[in-house]
Amino acid sequence: MKNILVFGGVGQLGQCIQKASASSEQFNFIYLDEVKGNILDNSLLSDLFEEYKPVYIINCAAYTAVDKAEDELELSRKINATGAENLANLSEQFGSTMIHISTDFVFEGNQTGLLTEEDIAKPVGVYGLTKLEGEVAIQKAAHKYFILRTSWLYSEFANNFVKTMLRLGADRPELGVIVDQVGSPTYAVDLAKVILQIIESGSEAYGLYHYSNEGVTSWYDFASTIFELAGLKVKVKALKTSEYPTKARRPFYSVMDKTKVKQNLGVEVPYWRDSLKTCLVELGY
Ligand SMILES: NC(=O)C1=CN([C@@H]2O[C@H](COP(=O)(O)OP(=O)(O)OC[C@H]3O[C@@H](n4cnc5c(N)ncnc54)[C@H](OP(=O)(O)O)[C@@H]3O)[C@@H](O)[C@H]2O)C=CC1
Ligand SMILES: Cc1cn([C@H]2C[C@H](O)[C@@H](COP(=O)(O)OP(=O)(O)O[C@H]3O[C@@H](C)C(=O)[C@@H](O)[C@H]3O)O2)c(=O)[nH]c1=O
């Protein structure tokens, strides 16, 4: 069987890929945690590539703590940029195709209109900056890569906004949530299916792609919809960004155009509310 190495294999997206690939008979997925697949350890990585000769590698490993990153530029850069570069170098050397995940937070977020892959990225925080550096490093080092920019990932696994809202909502009758940051939520299981589709199709349409769920919302509307669909009576108060101070700045607007992924890779994109319903069922609501 052909081998696929999944770095960050026990994080949120890694677990979603485990779920989506459970019935795959064509490929042998090897899910690596931070120790067995430390993307900063080049000698360990070389041994893994040597042993498994992977046809694909999927990089879900990342530094994703957006606020904390503001105080940890170096570590964030190491994981999001140098780690990605290490994997790209080895992929090029071993002829593997690299699938890498990036973020809507590479955008400044001051324009409206759908953001395409050609639009200039200009991050407003350390997390977005180091993720962009990772993209650039991959594009320089490798030929066979798919970089999928996605946004507002959530699922039944690990930590994410949906689970945070359900946890906070269980204890509090009212929550304040930002209304002037607009984007598209993405069910990470949907993204995992897209990754599998790319692999199973054997597509060679390498490059940078945008993928999120369909539709547009604010964090406030997202939170309100989570409570509505979960059948929970929690009052959500709309806050301006200035009323909910955070260490990191976040883009005000980061809705991405998905035309390229639909046209080149034949991907179908579920509406965010439908996918949210699916996730809530998985969570027992
Ligand atoms: N979550 C989101 O809302 C979004 C995420 N993305 C991107 O999607 C990808 C997947 O995100 P998600 O699954 O949610 O993130 P998680 O934080 O859940 O998973 C990231 C994983 O990477 C691991 N990791 C950290 N450092 C290393 C290292 N040096 N070597 C190997 N593994 C390491 C983490 O381990 P540990 O937890 O032990 O540190 C964690 O298990 C990331 O690239 C992220 O930037 C894009 C848009 C939105
Ligand atoms: C918990 C909470 C958050 N917020 C706001 C803060 C922030 O602007 C927004 C989302 O907060 P979170 O900290 O949960 O999400 P955050 O970590 O900012 O989410 C981002 O993560 C990275 C990894 C990405 O790549 C992005 O696409 C995006 O998903 O909601 C509230 O207004 N009220 C609340 O009670």
TrEMBL record:
The similarity comment for this entry is: Belongs to the dTDP-4-dehydrorhamnose reductase family.
Q: Which UniProt keywords apply?
A: NADP, Oxidoreductase
Its name, as the record gives it, is: dTDP-4-dehydrorhamnose reductase
Family matches, as NCBIfam families = rmlD
Q: Which residues form the RmlD-like substrate binding domain?
A: 3-282
Keyword Oxidoreductase: yes or no?
yes
Note the Gene3D superfamilies from the entry: NAD(P)-binding Rossmann-like Domain (3.40.50.720), UDP-galactose 4-epimerase, domain 1 (3.90.25.10)
Q: Which reactions fall under this protein's catalytic activity?
A: dTDP-beta-L-rhamnose + NADP(+) = dTDP-4-dehydro-beta-L-rhamnose + NADPH + H(+)
Single Gene Ontology MF annotation = dTDP-4-dehydrorhamnose reductase activity
The answer to whether UniProt assigns keyword Phosphoprotein to this entry is no
In the record, what lineage is assigned to the organism producing the protein?
Answer: Bacteria, Pseudomonadati, Bacteroidota, Cytophagia, Cytophagales
Record's InterPro entries? dTDP_dehydrorham_reduct, NAD(P)-bd_dom_sf, RmlD-like-bd
Q: Which Pfam families match?
A: RmlD_sub_bind (PF04321)
EC number annotated for this UniProt entry: 1.1.1.133
Pathway(s) per entry: Carbohydrate biosynthesis; dTDP-L-rhamnose biosynthesis
Function, as annotated, reads:
Catalyzes the reduction of dTDP-6-deoxy-L-lyxo-4-hexulose to yield dTDP-L-rhamnose.
